[in-house]
Amino acid sequence: MRFDEAYSGNVFIKSHPSYEDAQAVLYGMPMDWTVSYRPGSRFGPSRIREVSIGLEEYSPYLDRELEDVKYFDAGDIPLPFGNPYKSIDLIEEYIDSLMKDNKFPLGMGGEHLVSWPVMKAVAKKYPDLAIIHMDAHTDLRTDYEGEELSHSTPIRKIAEHIGPKNVYSFGIRSGMKEEFEWAKENGMHISKFEVLEPLKEILPTLAGRPVYVTIDIDVLDPAHAPGTGTVDAGGITSRELLASIHAIAGSNVHVVGADLVEVAPIYDSSEQTANTASKLLREMLLGWVK
Amino acid sequence: MRFDEAYSGNVFIKSHPSYEDAQAVLYGMPMDWTVSYRPGSRFGPSRIREVSIGLEEYSPYLDRELEDVKYFDAGDIPLPFGNPYKSIDLIEEYIDSLMKDNKFPLGMGGEHLVSWPVMKAVAKKYPDLAIIHMDAHTDLRTDYEGEELSHSTPIRKIAEHIGPKNVYSFGIRSGMKEEFEWAKENGMHISKFEVLEPLKEILPTLAGRPVYVTIDIDVLDPAHAPGTGTVDAGGITSRELLASIHAIAGSNVHVVGADLVEVAPIYDSSEQTANTASKLLREMLLGWVK
Amino acid sequence: MRFDEAYSGNVFIKSHPSYEDAQAVLYGMPMDWTVSYRPGSRFGPSRIREVSIGLEEYSPYLDRELEDVKYFDAGDIPLPFGNPYKSIDLIEEYIDSLMKDNKFPLGMGGEHLVSWPVMKAVAKKYPDLAIIHMDAHTDLRTDYEGEELSHSTPIRKIAEHIGPKNVYSFGIRSGMKEEFEWAKENGMHISKFEVLEPLKEILPTLAGRPVYVTIDIDVLDPAHAPGTGTVDAGGITSRELLASIHAIAGSNVHVVGADLVEVAPIYDSSEQTANTASKLLREMLLGWVK
Amino acid sequence: MRFDEAYSGNVFIKSHPSYEDAQAVLYGMPMDWTVSYRPGSRFGPSRIREVSIGLEEYSPYLDRELEDVKYFDAGDIPLPFGNPYKSIDLIEEYIDSLMKDNKFPLGMGGEHLVSWPVMKAVAKKYPDLAIIHMDAHTDLRTDYEGEELSHSTPIRKIAEHIGPKNVYSFGIRSGMKEEFEWAKENGMHISKFEVLEPLKEILPTLAGRPVYVTIDIDVLDPAHAPGTGTVDAGGITSRELLASIHAIAGSNVHVVGADLVEVAPIYDSSEQTANTASKLLREMLLGWVK
Amino acid sequence: MRFDEAYSGNVFIKSHPSYEDAQAVLYGMPMDWTVSYRPGSRFGPSRIREVSIGLEEYSPYLDRELEDVKYFDAGDIPLPFGNPYKSIDLIEEYIDSLMKDNKFPLGMGGEHLVSWPVMKAVAKKYPDLAIIHMDAHTDLRTDYEGEELSHSTPIRKIAEHIGPKNVYSFGIRSGMKEEFEWAKENGMHISKFEVLEPLKEILPTLAGRPVYVTIDIDVLDPAHAPGTGTVDAGGITSRELLASIHAIAGSNVHVVGADLVEVAPIYDSSEQTANTASKLLREMLLGWVK
Amino acid sequence: MRFDEAYSGNVFIKSHPSYEDAQAVLYGMPMDWTVSYRPGSRFGPSRIREVSIGLEEYSPYLDRELEDVKYFDAGDIPLPFGNPYKSIDLIEEYIDSLMKDNKFPLGMGGEHLVSWPVMKAVAKKYPDLAIIHMDAHTDLRTDYEGEELSHSTPIRKIAEHIGPKNVYSFGIRSGMKEEFEWAKENGMHISKFEVLEPLKEILPTLAGRPVYVTIDIDVLDPAHAPGTGTVDAGGITSRELLASIHAIAGSNVHVVGADLVEVAPIYDSSEQTANTASKLLREMLLGWVK
Ligand SMILES: [Mn+2]
Ligand SMILES: [Mn+2]
Ligand SMILES: [Mn+2]
Ligand SMILES: [Mn+2]
Ligand SMILES: [Mn+2]
Ligand SMILES: [Mn+2]
Ligand SMILES: [Mn+2]
Ligand SMILES: [Mn+2]
Ligand SMILES: [Mn+2]
Ligand SMILES: [Mn+2]
Ligand SMILES: [Mn+2]
Ligand SMILES: [Mn+2]
């Protein structure tokens, strides 16, 4: 006899009460143990849920309401602290089960490394999967200080797994020289600094294809997302990010899963970033889950 | 024998010492008791005054100085805590007296509900009043959880009072579906997302008319106004808001009163929002009080 | 198929999965709408749960572990925003059901007014109920600005309901002169400033009696509990409050319910107060639920 | 026609409306320009006034109410930024006028240097003045980096002015070796670390004498007063400071003026220090103004 | 035997170990004693160094790496607290030595006044020096409250020293009417509000000339730089500032020195401003030191 | 040609310029990668150095000045991020070198695990070493989630290494039941809750023995040390901790090394904890290095 949680802040606002007939499943991946600089994203999913109760249920951008989509907030995947190997195995396993049940996976990080096992699991079902990646950072390292499981490696891993030509990065403004060179040499797409304009050019070329979208909140300028571990000046506005989500929604790609990662509440004065994340998730749900 | 307060932070900087020969009267409405999510705007007016001492007295936008306008800061209207009914009566009564004395009323909120009795009082004097409303939110609800006096209802109230066709909302990016529909069906103007461009189109149609301007600080993006109760991503910049104030100043409308509401210091790291509000008020005084 | 929540921060750590065989029920009362000065305690229960995952499960004070007590965290009672009348009715109704099911009610506020309907419901079952009240404030007003439902009135209400002689306040360092006088004239016990020593003197006189304990976190000095609406210097240490909880645990009174109220996360730098509250709740559970 | 300010936060709560029949005058000295480490106390007086509206008007310590004393809050003395010489002249001049009018001067800093001109002015009227000084720091330097007007010199200055034997410092836990030696060699009293116990011993020796009390808020431990420029561990509790104020109130000394300095809002999370300062001022008013 | 400091946060990341063969010298000027409103920039240089360890060493804007430039971080110039006269003498003396050794001076403030002695020293070596100044403020006062050494005077001083026609200000949105008029009358260039576009127009006219660039971080909008003493709405984005640095790098001017001033960590929630400053310094080093 | 750093905040205040003739060596161990709950202590050492410039150089407790002890601040040991194995090897190696050079090692954490390799290295030189451990937590786990290198295991490791009978823990108020039982069964000393009184009883029994003292800042109550990862109510005051340091200084034990760990600046509003840590280090240097 728990109180109904739809507006409690324990689940994302208006979470559907049952898994079975949900189209999409929202889940948290509270892991930040490979983060080198400023950890804290492990608390991201719970804070996003907490502030989601302040969210308006209607999107004037998409003219659609939260009750038009059935999504189930499954809570946070329990991950073993400090063990990235076991953590990514558990995530992959969970996404495998969602894929089997034909659910749209909508993940909340945690650090960006969590996207790697998710994308791997989604690629099993969709062999010609393409990745749309929005981030300040290339995330194309092979390793960080000798460790291949790092929040700076997930895009390299998926690029090697499904082929660099199938990965499209946008808004990148930071990385090692070697990472940019590797991308160039291997035919991976990188749009530096901008998101919306290059995205609009590329979307038609992906028409009909299954696409997974992974958004690192730090693609936003620190003005728009102070609450993340690695703030980096010169980013895009939340308005451009919203428009980019809507551009994907209005295109002919087939979004088959998505995530939003790296929200870190401890650096988030005024809870501005968590609120923005909760609005972005609403638009992702309403625009991409069909 | 109180010390002169012109630069004390207890009044808005350079407040004229007497009410009698002032053109404009600045007053606070420290009420936030109908706020559902994050209260705190009751402390807005006093913090804006406090930071106003850091304000330059000259506007390079308008080439005008504070001493070119005589305004009297009357302090905060004493409002009975927790009682919105009596509070709005007291506000209306006070504005009635300002109208009688031919003062330009320039109000500081407090929650947005405080604008309702002000607009009502101003409309008594100016029967063909138009409202320019800048906000992230429609504020067109008939009630909130059954209560008609709520910070989500003031625009509905004034729209029904003076006719929806006389109300022009700008920058709106949040609201219930029903609110947008009601506006549409009743001929009320709503510009979604943008302020400056649609405003420039509409101003000529209002030439010569008396206009009251109500600005909810959350029309700004959270990057520009973190210090408010309901932050909502995708807003405009402070630069666009300044330009909008100047567009009105340069038009042929007759501004007969204005307010700036919803500044909440507790969420305002670096006092950024209070400082911005104090600059906006300077531009409103210099641009609109003639 | 929700993930197990025992360590998720959505429930108090190690919450038992079922209501039926639980001895105690933990519940939140997220209400702060009668608060005059600094609201925010509505977010107290969820933040206490969130930080409870950092809590050690063993008490070296009591040599007892959380798994020695079966408690069920029921979540937050959904309360109608801004309506104290309906809110307290809903709380009373819920506690009535807990009483019927022979559960130990352990509440988390919210503002102190929420204790009034709880105590009233508990008193139905235990007619000779005594109240132990720890607070910086008397909370003995008849009304606040004419409103009888206020966070400054709950102790007056219960005192009039069960008789002032059955109410024992400790640690009081703030109130109106009239409140102290009313207490004195009506035989109600008030220990000013101190908690532990006077409590030790009074506990033997209550031996065998059913006792409800209501703790306002502001009984602690602001040094120990900055995260509350009404900080008031000169309070007790968290060490004295822990010892007071243990003194009750070691006495012959029969604790039949309890609450901890007024934690307000927005003022709680370093989450110190929420962490303290979560430790206090552990000691209350382990010391008082038998 | 300004609104009544008694509860506005612009004056200390319940400030009497007129200077003429006030017993005491409260005034701010918003100066911090000689501060070497962390400035910010210039904003102390206004924040103390702002939070004073949350203060209970009755003291259960002294069984006295604010309306039992007539005090007038004169606002902040306008001081020329960056010019300590002219600032202290202006302060001295103002206190001279208060002395002439037989007002009890109750000052709010600002940095501790502001106490020097006040004490000098008070000493003109009371030639056998004694000083009670509570502080973490000796403040006995002759100069700081060659500058004799520094917040580390006021006690040296008054000690040389009225004779070191008439100065009694309490709670001192920081200073240069030379300062402690100078005090010893010149017969000035310093109680290291403790306040209440040594004060109780000394008060009888001062019976009947005019005494000025200067309290640096940093005499409190940083736990009790984080909001000050120079936090220094190992200080006293707010409880001990309250008891010390009451000890003076209950003694036979004749308090002829007092101040409370060094509150710096920018470091004051939860406004804990400002709230404590406002309570201390209430007790000083009720205990010392007779 | 100190540990290598290249990644310690005690020096700017990858600082070259020796002064002798360095092309550029980075140094801090931790002075803020003439600041009237909100001091704190004296801690700017050390915080910028601290966060620089999170900086990527490669610039995707300039396709250049930090190891492509040899720069030596000399630490902070020890400045006598509270004494602006001696401080600026010490700064000038130090820059004289850098000029003699043919080093590119790259300074970190501190308040803007520190740029005055630097520019004076650089002008000795380069008689036809031009100044590019980016700021929210004119900084053209002759004095502040009678004091000619103020953070509002450095541009006036250098303009009078090398001739107003050689000074180009960009992004100005605040100042006294007299300052704008003085600039106009004396042929000094001021671009109001904008930086990038007017800069692009002016750079060709400066081709071949030695240029010193002084950037006040408050040229950025408060959204992009909350961590400064004088936040002023309506500023440029960090993206525009980066592009402006790159425009200079790509032009034919000969940058002979530069500084970045007014970062104040105490107002810098999420350390956003310090991180931005560290990125700007990387771009200045990679773009301007050749 | 670096500027002298003695007062720069880059080294602990008044650090001696050379290693060779220093009695003590101060060093940072910026590691927090095994921390389960709230990381951030990796930034502790640099913040402690930064605030140390505000420290008075004389101790009125010990009547000794910093220049009476020669200590060299070596900076932070460069530790490989995310690799606790290699990190503790590097630390041990460094302490070995200090031991060989007869330096008194004074370490700053970082998480508590860093003390393990230090104590191991010190024990090589002093076979009959005893450990004095002050902490809120037992730190006696064999592993955390299967990982033996965790900040909850260092005391278990040293206890097993030198024999549990040689380890004395004080102030412990948190831990698993098994940890307390293991201590009891193996003759290790644990003083629950208190530090000063039990310490005074035990010091005579250690007379003449070499002792290493490891202080976890969380032994302080959260009121006195909010800036740490695991705040736990009911701790001791900074006054008791200072007195405990002085009690050791005044005893006949032979302190041969010490550390202070777990200061985490991100949670440290007002920099209170860093300031306290810097004062504690001064007292440790002046009291223990002879
Ligand atoms: Mn990423
Ligand atoms: Mn990223
Ligand atoms: Mn509104
Ligand atoms: Mn709004
Ligand atoms: Mn209460
Ligand atoms: Mn209370
Ligand atoms: Mn002092
Ligand atoms: Mn002091
Ligand atoms: Mn400037
Ligand atoms: Mn500026
Ligand atoms: Mn420990
Ligand atoms: Mn610990």
From TrEMBL, chains A, B, C, D, E, F:
Pathways involved: Amine and polyamine biosynthesis; putrescine biosynthesis via agmatine pathway; putrescine from agmatine: step 1/1
E.C. numbers: 3.5.3.11
Any one GO molecular-function label of the UniProt entry: metal ion binding
The keyword Metal-binding is assigned to this record: yes
GO-annotated biological processes: putrescine biosynthetic process from arginine, via agmatine; spermidine biosynthetic process
Keyword annotations from UniProtKB, A to Z: Hydrolase, Manganese, Metal-binding, Polyamine biosynthesis, Putrescine biosynthesis, Spermidine biosynthesis
Catalytic activity: agmatine + H2O = urea + putrescine
Cofactor descriptive note: Binds 2 manganese ions per subunit.
Pfam families (alphabetical): Arginase (PF00491)
Cofactor: Mn(2+)
UniProt xrefs under InterPro entries: Agmatinase-rel, Ureohydrolase, Ureohydrolase_dom_sf, Ureohydrolase_Mn_BS
Binding, Mn(2+): H112, D135, H137, D139, D216, D218
NCBIfam families: agmatinase
Job description of the protein: Catalyzes the formation of putrescine from agmatine.
Record-stated family: Belongs to the arginase family. Agmatinase subfamily.
The protein, known as: Agmatinase
Organism: Jeotgalibacillus proteolyticus
